[in-house]
Amino acid sequence: MTTHTTAPVSTPRPAARPAGRRRKRSALRGRGAQGWLYAMPTAVFVGLFFIVPILLVVQMSVSDWPLLAGNRGPNFPENFQDVVANKYFWPSIVFTLKYTVIATVLLLGLGLGMALLVQESTRWKGFLRTAFLVPSALGLASASLLFYALYSPQSGPISPFLEKLGLVDEPISFLGTPTAALWSTVFLIVWRFAGFYMLLLLVGLQNIPGEVYEAARIDGAKPFQIFRSITLPLLRPSLMLCTIMCVTGSLLAFDQFYILTKGGPDNSTITVVQLIYNMAFQGQNDLGRAAALSILVLLALIVINALQFRGMRQTDEK
Amino acid sequence: MSTTRKSIRAVRPLAALLTVGMLATSLAACSPADDTDSGSGGDTAASDSPEGVDDGTQLTLWTRAPMEKQATLLVDAYNASHENQVSLTITPNDDYVAKVGAAAGSGSLPDLFAADIVYVPNWTSQGLFTDITDRIDGLPYADELAQGHIDAGTYEDQEYVLPFVLDLSVMFYNKDLYREAGLDPEKPPTTLKEYGEHAKAISALGKDGVSGTYFGGNCGGCTLFTWFPSVWAGGDQVLSADGTESLLASDTAKDVYAVYKDMVDSGAIGTGTKDETGATWTGPFQEGKVGVMPYPATLLSTAAETVDVGVAPIPGPDGGESTFVGGDGIGISKDSKNEAAAWNFLSWLTSEDAQVEVLAKNNDVVSRADLADNKYAAVDPRLVTINEVAAKGSTPVAINFQQAFNAPDSPWLTLVRGAVFGDAKNIDADNDEITAVLDQ
């Protein structure tokens, strides 16, 4: 019935429709163009400071490009072959992965513990929060220099202090053996970053509604059961964020190792970025090879982050 | 409606592709730098006076931190007596290569810059310096200049570099500690083995914080500077003549390592020696905490402020004497637009005014053999010793020197640490690694 009444009305429509569509299209194009204009400054910055440098690094990685002499023309795939054949390539990857695992586990574990502590203790909350966050005020390089002085066998105060207390018999060499150097650096990183991750996890904790806890307590759940079955699952997004940040940051660790150990002792603490730096400025002086290794690191990071994001999405869907 | 949405959806990836394409082509436009062969022609030598031009030009000079005192004195003296004015920039040793590399890549090197003499062969071959062969030959005292430095800066028979500040390695000893240990303060060690004995005697004093000796146990540059002379004094070479083979597993070299290993095993070395990356290797002696150690001669005036310093040439395992003629060479950069004015500074630098009245006055070694016997040197017998041993020293030349010896992950450092802190069983294999790097 309605079709009959609309049929005569529908005939003028085909003529009106293109005009209407044109109006809509131009209106949309106007808005679209405006949107592009608003986005243009950011796009220029992203292009200039992000895309162009990456393209330059790609160009470097396929060219013979010594530090001092400049671009000498393409030489693909020599740079990549030289990088993989470098005697510190695989050791640095292994060490970086080992360090990443240790740092992530410790930072997230301690961060979560400190967040729970700060959340539970009402009296000391302000003081604890400040105390845990103060190390974040130092830049990483400054913190590394501070610890370099603390660990110094000639002028560091820690070893003589421990000797005086009678806890150790002879001076401790914090950076003298591969294991000691690794754990001394991990200690520095934990000191510097645990507060930051505590803050992130604290925000996540505070987003869990109190009613859920009440309900669980009414049901007679024990504290550990509450933690495992309610806190952790509801904290998953924050934990995922912290994991991604921690893993990416640790894979790119450079400052602390450059200042504390310079890759020593005996080349046992060379991370991948330290190797890039060494190739570029310490001896080989070859920007092409350093760029090739940078591209490999970039690809690895993309893959790892993609996997992490997928893991995050899966748990969300759950 | 669906077509507009489709068109926008189609436009987005197309726009992204276009942006990337535009950026890529703009990059291709600023592509390979022109092929500069090493050293632009020095064709202006004939037109200016042999001393260059002094017309009030502002010149820039870069040098590295170990040479700070001498560089500052030289620049101040030049600025006070010339129209040209030089502005000096000092950079920490570890950052110098990166800074020069960045400037070289962007064509913004300063007018003049100094380089560690062991890096000079590499930098010269890569075209960082201007050819000054004719200008050097025009100097009346060209033959008297430190030949090791000139050779290091010679590439394909063209000369690019003059000696800036010579730094020799000599044995410094603390006369007070010698007296306390019952050693004669006027009888420094004449063989390396005697040096080991003296170090152990001072360590036996048991004074708090005081050690017999000290060295940069994690520093390739420090150890080559102080140990190579012992090999030369023992009659052997450290590198082949063309700089592609390492001879550091010879019997003389192994004797040298054995002396240091003996000192390490008997506890005569200071705490922190094993971890010393070179940042503070000269510190403990100046604090009076070290008995005897090979040391840079340029720090004589600084060390003498706090310690009663005695100086002796570095001996070989069983005698002889030699030194590492190191320090910096200086040249005019490829990017300089003031070549004649920059040459004015260089010609003044090698003149008697600068060599004697600035360098020798500061208790430093001169770069000219004919000025070695100057009035300041004669006053201080320690300077006479240093100047005399300068003639017996050497400067090793190799294109891949930095990667083989100075880099933090160099094979030389692995050899040193294995021979002195380890079991000394891997010296031959480590030496082959050095050759592999030199030979690249």
Automatic annotation (TrEMBL), chain A:
Q: Which family does it belong to?
A: Belongs to the binding-protein-dependent transport system permease family.
SUPFAM superfamilies per record: MetI-like
User: Which regions span the lipid bilayer?
Assistant: 35-58, 99-118, 130-151, 180-203, 238-259, 287-307
* Stretches the record annotates as Disordered: 1-24
The way it spans or sits in the membrane comes to: Multi-pass membrane protein
Q: Which InterPro entries match?
A: MetI-like (IPR000515), MetI-like_sf (IPR035906), UgpAE/MalFG_permease (IPR050809)
Ranges for domain ABC transmembrane type-1 come to 93-308
Is Cell membrane set as a keyword in this record?
yes
**What PANTHER family does the annotation carry?**
BLL4140 PROTEIN (PTHR43227), DIACETYLCHITOBIOSE UPTAKE SYSTEM PERMEASE PROTEIN DASB (PTHR43227:SF8)
Q: What are the UniProt keywords, alphabetically?
A: Cell membrane, Membrane, Transmembrane, Transmembrane helix, Transport
Q: Which organism is it from?
A: Oerskovia enterophila
Q: What is the name of this protein?
A: Lactose transport system permease protein LacF
The reply on keyword Cell membrane is yes
In terms of Pfam families, this protein maps to: BPD_transp_1 (PF00528)
Annotated localization:
Cell membrane
From TrEMBL, chain B:
**Signal peptide interval:** 1-28
Q: Report if keyword Transport is assigned.
A: yes
Keywords assigned? Signal, Transport
Instruction: Tell me if Signal is a UniProt keyword of this record.
Output: yes
Q: Name one GO biological process term.
A: maltodextrin transmembrane transport
InterPro entries per UniProt: SBP
Pfam families referenced in this protein's UniProt entry, alphabetically? SBP_bac_1
Kindly state one GO CC term assigned in the UniProt record: ATP-binding cassette (ABC) transporter complex, substrate-binding subunit-containing
Region annotated Disordered, chain positions: 31-56
PROSITE patterns associated with the record: PROKAR_LIPOPROTEIN (PS51257)
Annotated CDD domains: PBP2_TMBP_like
Q: Which GO terms describe its molecular function?
A: maltose binding
Q: What protein family is recorded?
A: Belongs to the bacterial solute-binding protein 1 family.
Q: What is this protein called?
A: sn-glycerol-3-phosphate-binding periplasmic protein UgpB
Organism, scientific name: Oerskovia enterophila
